[in-house]
Write a structure and sequence with these properties.
Blueprint (H helix, E strand, L loop, with lengths): L5 E6 L3 H6 L10 E7 L5 H7 L4 E4 L7 H22 L3 E6 L4 H9 L3 E5 L10 H6 L5 E4 L12 E2 L5
Parallel strand pairs: 1-2, 1-4, 2-3, 4-5, 5-6, 6-7
Helix pairs in contact: 3-4
Length: 160
């Protein structure tokens, strides 16, 4: 990988972010950027990875449907802004809803989208995974059983 390759790593907070941060050793090999949801727990990442490389979107939970839809709309607009600010060559994500708009934007601009389906699902697809699967340049599953769900995916084993 070329050091000037711009890679945007994006995921929701919690387990998805924990999985994504397993890829942090790649950061030294590229021009990386990290986007996740804004929470108190994630503020430490701004200091660790740098104010010019770490960005946040609004936290959303499906348990609050009205505000969730509004937050997705706002995050979609912010994703457009971040896309043009960063101009990534690749978008790499472990999901979920936070990453879908960015994946769609990158795909429309003919950039590479790499989706790593969460380790939490070994039998059923995630909603976000189903939305990105048709447009992903590389779709990686962490369970061999998920190849039945996503036949064009690549089994990559556990990210941990």
């Amino acid at each position: 990988m070329k050091p000037d390759t711009r890679i945007l790593f994006i995921s929701s907070t919690g387990g998805h972010l924990t999985e994504l941060l397993q890829l942090a050793p790649l950061f030294a090999e590229c021009d990386y950027y990290l986007i996740t949801e804004k929470t108190k727990a994630n503020e430490v990442l701004r200091e660790r990875y740098g104010r010019d490389r770490f960005f946040t979107l609004l936290y959303g939970s499906r348990s609050q449907p009205v505000s969730y839809v509004l937050r997705i709309l706002i995050n979609s607009i912010r994703s457009v802004y971040y896309y043009y600010r960063i101009r990534p060559d690749y978008v790499i994500t472990t999901g979920t809803h936070t990453a879908v708009p960015m994946c769609r934007i990158a795909h429309r601009h003919h950039k590479k989208v790499i989706w790593i389906e969460t380790i939490a699902n070994s039998q059923t697809p995630t909603l976000a995974g189903r939305m990105v699967y048709p447009i992903a340049d590389l779709f990686i599953v962490q369970w061999e059983s998920m190849l039945k769900v996503y036949p064009k995916a690549v089994y990559g084993g556990w990210i941990f």
